[in-house]
Amino acid sequence: MITLPSPQYEDHIVFLRTLYEKLQKPVVVGVSGGIDSAVALTLLARVIPKEKIIPVLLPHHLQNMDDAKQIIAFNQIPESQTHIIDIAPMVQSICDNLQIEKNDHIRRGNIKARVRMITLFDLAKKYEAVVCGTENKSEKRLGYFTRFGDSASDIEPISTLYKTQVRELAQQLTVPKLFIEKTPSAGLWENQSDEQELGFTYHDADQIMYATFELGYSKNQIMQKNPALNSDVIQRVLDQVASQQFKQLVPYSMEVAPNAMG
To answer: 112, exposed or middle or buried, with CB in 10 Å at 0-12, 13-18, 19+?
Structure first.
């Protein structure tokens, strides 16, 4: 078995406390009801005055937001500070204007993620706040995010943690069990599942990525350490990372020599 290091709860608290003391601004955070936003919100609530936290729920039409409301209540954030905005009309308007077919899940999903971003940043402008992101290291390495959508933020409290480490941090924070056991989903279309779409589990992917990029293991060394990880699964994960590498490199820009600026 390949074991990832346990997350250090205090490190995340110190990071957020130091940042808040420097910025002295309210924080807008999108709360989906998934584990990532649950952990991010809970970390914020341990550090920042509750009246400075602005949770935002962005359902698409009749999307159930009960879990999102539960984690807000768990952290005792006043209901009066929560914004609930149905993004369906905005998404539909853009899709209609761009003539995006109903079955084009990828394009529609990207539009949905970017409308969420626009909404969060507009509210941040309104309240002179910063936007807290909820991206984890697994999504980042796999390129499993929408550029200028869920990857856009001012603060990223869990971006150094793989998904399995986020689950462990959730346990440390005593986040309700339902969030820890919930099927990971970006909620970009009905019944969407991260792991089903990717073709492998975060449990396997995290071990493979940690062993490859942090420990420098080869494919054979990974299989020796964990025989349950076969060659096909390892290759699928590494292929996913490679195919999405461009997201880490763009925008491409021309290098300007120092003396060219006079």
So the answer is: buried
Note the pLDDT tens digit of each residue in 201-247.
999 999 999 999 999 999 999 999 999 999 999 999 999 999 999 99
DSSP secondary structure letters along 146-161:
-TTTTT--SB-TTTTS
Structure tokens at 233: 């699964």
Across the strands, what pairs with 83? Answer: 56
- Collapsing DSSP to helix, strand or coil, 170 comes out as helix
* Coil, strand or helix at 84: strand
Q: Which residues contact 233 (CB under 8 A, 6 or more apart)?
A: 200, 204, 208
Task: Indicate the SS3 state at residue 40.
Answer: helix
Tokens (6 digits) for 57: 């729920």
**pLDDT, tens digit (0-9, with 9 covering 90-100), for 153-186:** 999 999 999 999 999 999 999 999 999 998 887 7
Q: Is the pTM of this model over 0.70?
A: yes
Decide: 84 and 57 in contact? Cβ < 8 Å. Answer: yes
C-alpha to C-alpha distance for 74 and 45, rounded to whole angstroms: 10
**Hey, what domains does the chain have and what are their CATH numbers?**
9-194 (3.40.50.620)
Cα–Cα distance, 32 to 72 (Å, whole number) = 11
- Tokens found for residue 257: 């020599």
pLDDT tens-place string over residues 108-129:
999 999 999 999 999 999 999 9
State how far the Cα of 15 lies from the Cα of 31, in Å rounded to an integer.
20
Find the angle CA(31)-CA(156)-CA(120) to the nearest 5 degrees. Answer: 45
Backbone φ, ψ for residue 53 (5° rounding): -100, 130
Share above pLDDT 70 across residues of the chain, in percent, rounded to a whole number: 97
